[in-house]
Amino acid sequence: MNDQDIHADRPAEKIRILLADDHALVRRGVRLILDREPDLEVVAEAGDGAEAIAMARTHDVDLAVLDIAMPRLTGLQAARELTSLKPGLRILMLTMHDNEQYLFQALKAGAGGYVLKSVADRDLVAACRAAMRDEPFLYPGAVTALIRNYLDRVRHGEEAPEQLLTPREEEVLKLVAEGHSSKEIAELLFISVKTVQRHRENLLHKLGLRDRLELTRYAIRAGLVEP
User: 4-aspartylphosphate is carried by which residues (predicted)?
Assistant: First the structure.
């Protein structure tokens, strides 16, 4: 066997996982599910939310798998802290609760996925890989809950997230995403360059984005420009 064959068999860099659950038996079972995968490795364990945050400070981790109900700090509280502490860290919530309220709180806290313990052996590995691709992972009942919540908001006349922007901000966003300079946008919309810059700052602030690239990605997702 030559060197090329040896390297071909070697797995890519493993996803380093922080696992937090206050039940040692659950942690052991979840760890077995994850560690048997060639691309996943549990590198740190925690028994509560506060310990999870401490572990994230001292370990290089790519993904945190957090139980929702834990002592000291819950998984939801820990998720909020971890999102602030390590913005690039992906987070999955692991729970026994098929509960819409927990689901929405988890998404607000920065979690990219929500996995039920009852089907963790089936869903967790796929959820971990989806999280690392920046893709949301929700069990079928959660998807139903999200759609129902959206339809309820529409029926009650509440604004959908896409209506967060004013029509003028949408115009500016579209033109930014199409690559126009502030001067060009000002001329196209018959407004001052200063006003364009103010709109751009408002867009970044409202949408929680950092730069032009992220604005462009948002505009594509919102259907304002073609990918």
Answer: 67
87-117 confidence digits (pLDDT tens) = 889 999 888 877 667 777 888 888 888 888 8
- Token pair of 45 as six digits: 């364990």
Whole-structure pTM over 0.90, yes or no? no
Dist. CA 204–CA 200, nearest whole Å? 6
Return all residues near 154 (Cβ < 8 A) that are at least 6 apart: 160
Q: By C-alpha distance, which of 26, 28, 56 is closest to 44?
A: 56
pLDDT in tens, 130-141: 888 888 787 776
Q: CA separation (Å) from 217 to 196, 211, 212, 214, 223?
A: 19, 10, 9, 5, 10
- HSE-CB at 213 with a 13 A cutoff on CA atoms is 0
Concatenate the DSSP letters of all residues of the chain into one string: --HHHHHHHSPPPPEEEEEE-S-HHHHHHHHHHHHTSTTEEEEEEESSHHHHHHHHHHS--SEEEEESS-SSS-HHHHHHHHHHH-TT-EEEEEES---HHHHHHHHHTT-SEEEEGGGHHHHHHHHHHHHHTT--EE-HHHHHHHHHHHHHHHHTTPPPGGGGS-HHHHHHHHHHHTT--HHHHHHHHT--HHHHHHHHHHHHHHHT--SHHHHHHHHHHTTSS--
Q: How confident is the model at residue 28 (pLDDT cuts 50, 70, 90)?
A: very high
